[in-house]
Amino acid sequence: MEIRFQPALLQEVIDSFVEKTEREGDPTYYKEFHELADPIYERFTLDDREAEFKKLYQYFFGTWGFSDIIRDAFEEFPSLKERVGIVLIKGVLKEDQEGVDILRKWGS
After folding, report:
1. For residue 26, what are the CA distances in angstroms to 19, 29, 32?
2. In the chain, which end has fewer C-beta atoms inside a 10 angstrom radius, N or C?
3. pLDDT grade, residue 103 (50/70/90)?
4. pLDDT band at residue 94 using 50, 70 and 90 as cut-offs
5. Residue 71 burial (CB < 10 Å; 0-12/13-18/19+)?
6. 51-68: b or e for each residue (b if 16 or more CB lie within 10 Å)?
């Protein structure tokens, strides 16, 4: 099973987490994020920055354990994990936009 995350969701999660932890008095994640984010402005052209930031958000989403939360949830349902090919996780703006579409693997 492959799990994919919407890039805008990754950015929202990381930005919110960095802001929340800094506001609560822990600058660790803010500093770690900006150590890698700030040089992107210096090293890359405006056209190339979006791709670099996308990679950066993917890196922190995995490194800080957010992707593990989802992966661990699927570990609790091995039969579902075997039957699902791709899971796409997207952010929503309102509760009424929440939902699940389940598609079976080809040949299952």
Report:
1. 10, 7, 11
2. C
3. low
4. low
5. middle
6. ebbeebbbebbeebebbe
The pTM of the whole model exceeds 0.90 = no
Q: How far apart are CA 10 and CA 80, in angstroms?
A: 24
Q: What is the 3-state secondary structure (H, E, C) of 30-87?
A: HHHHHHHHHHHHHHCCHHHHHHHHHHHHHHHHHHCCHHHHHHHHHHCCHHHHHHECEE
| Cβ pair 86, 2 in contact under 8 A | yes
**Phi, psi values for residue 93, rounded to 5°:** -90, -30
